[in-house]
Amino acid sequence: MLKRDITCIFCIGRRCNSIDFLNQFKLRKFSGPFDHLMIDFETSLQIINTKFENFLYDIITFNKNQKK
Questions:
Q1: In this predicted model, what pLDDT tens digit does every residue of 3-41 receive, in sequence order?
Q2: Across the strands, what pairs with 13?
Q3: Per-residue DSSP letters for 53-68?
Q4: Do residues 11 and 19 touch, judged by C-beta distance below 8 A?
Q5: How many whole angstroms separate alpha carbon 33 and alpha carbon 61?
Q6: Can you tell me the distance from the alpha carbon of 36 to that of 14, in angstroms, rounded to the nearest whole number?
Q7: 8 Å CB contact between 49 and 68
Q8: Comparing 27-31, 45-49, 57-61, which segment has the lowest mean pLDDT?
Q9: Which residues of 22-33 are buried (b: 16+ CB within 10 A; e: fewer)?
Q10: What are the boundaries of each domain within the chain?
Q11: DSSP assignment of 12-51, as one string?
């Protein structure tokens, strides 16, 4: 078996548990492309497989202060 060093860890989804874990152990050096997004795992894999070609193409934004 080949030994591989992990160079990056990307968290997927809007829950911050994994981000909190990485921060706690000083393993997180930057924000990832999926941080705090409401996205499912399958869609995340599609985006990765297409090399982020259409990433955020159909993004929906919500302003809770203006309720729109």
A1: 788 888 788 877 778 888 888 998 888 888 888 788 888
A2: 35
A3: TTTTTT-----TTTT-
A4: yes
A5: 16
A6: 4
A7: no
A8: 57-61
A9: beeeeebeeebe
A10: 7-68
A11: -BS--HHHHHHHHTT---S--TTBT----HHHHHHHHHTT
